[in-house]
Amino acid sequence: MKKLIILAVGLCIAGAVQAQSPIRLGVKAGLNLPDIIKGDGNNDFDTKLNPGFNAGITLDINLIKGLAFTPELLYATKGYKATAPFGEFTQTTHFIDLPLLASLNLGGSKLNLVVGPQVSFLLSTKNKYDTGFGTAEQEIIEDKSDRFKKSLVGGLIGFRYDVTDKVDIHGRYALDFQKNNEDGSKETPEYRNQVFSVGLGIKF
To answer: 85-123 burial string, b = 16+ CB within 10 Å, else e?
Structure first.
């Protein structure tokens, strides 16, 4: 299902560019500052940010003056860090994010509000434990594991500032509405991803 959705988005982008309609293709990249919101499972630990990145392609589809549909297809890293009794634990998760956003221009200025749902597809999880004397790492490929949900639905809100008609800077907050699993443990705690991000976009 994940591959079919990604393929469908790719075909839509290709068709939009070929049609020469009022649709603009773009690319974007940025810094992710992810952490988690813990659920009701075994979660007696404190967490902090695990900086990562996002990068991908965007569309800007003008609907009416001041309002556009701006879907994106992004590769993104998320996760968290936690202090353990004898070191630091870091979990980094790799996702394909599909934000389906509305972009609302604010008062004819260069500032735009962006908001909408987001579907995230989990690709892999990397756990790292650093004791200060050595490290242990584990990588979980999600096509071969049932430890975490493969897809999550969430929402996103943020602002975009159009520096020019081709270049923008933006800041956002994204939150999963679903937990990563329904039965938390020390190995797979219940949580929801939350990500603050800033980035740069370029339109063609």
So the answer is: eebebbbbbbbbbbbebebebeeeeeebebebebbbbbb
